[in-house]
Amino acid sequence: MIELVDAGVSVEVPGAGGRTQRTLLQPTSLSLTERRIAIIGANGSGKSTLLRLLNGLVLPTTGHVRVDGLDVRSHGRQVRRRVGFVFTDPQAQLVLATPVEDVELSLRARIADRQARRAEALRLLTERGLGEIAEQSVYDLSGGERQLVALTSVLAAEPAVLLADEPTTLLDLRNRDRISQVLAELSQQVIVVTHDLELAAAADRVLVIESGEVVVDDHPSAAIDAYLKLVRP
Question: Would you say 173 and 180 are in contact if contact means Cβ atoms under 8 Å apart?
Fold first, then answer.
């Protein structure tokens, strides 16, 4: 279970009279237990800050965030083994030359033997329909293929929770549907930040963020209606 207790984020920014504090996320308390949760809101509202709090990519400046009882501030490594993260742009996290090498890197912690590790990486890529491009350069892949490779690499580490920050934003409709289907079929808890209201509507719970604050926390239809009223008054 992921739990936030008065967790907020502020940063120092330069101002006319010197450095001032800017609040990115107001102190927030949440218990995130549903299998599928979507976070929606305008650009700059604090969605990604909230998502990054959940595995310690961003640390709270007030309050606490705990994953299965582990505080992200003091147990960051253990938390990130439990909570995987998929970025909007897969090139931000594909660090090796080919898909198979990238997935192998994720498998090192649990498969010591090199041949066994490569076989498992190929199996996982084939399972995602990526077997034919396993040894191509990641720079030669389509956006959808890169996103699927990034997702496969993250899932290879067997996290209990998957966080995804706008995973369909850079994709065409076909690949958007492909990624959405993969996310829907995962056994892991999935928490996704998205502007894709169709993707949000498939969640069990939707949070609406506005000006660094959770202003709506409800089932999808009610939350999405509330969000549309915010952006289309």
Answer: no
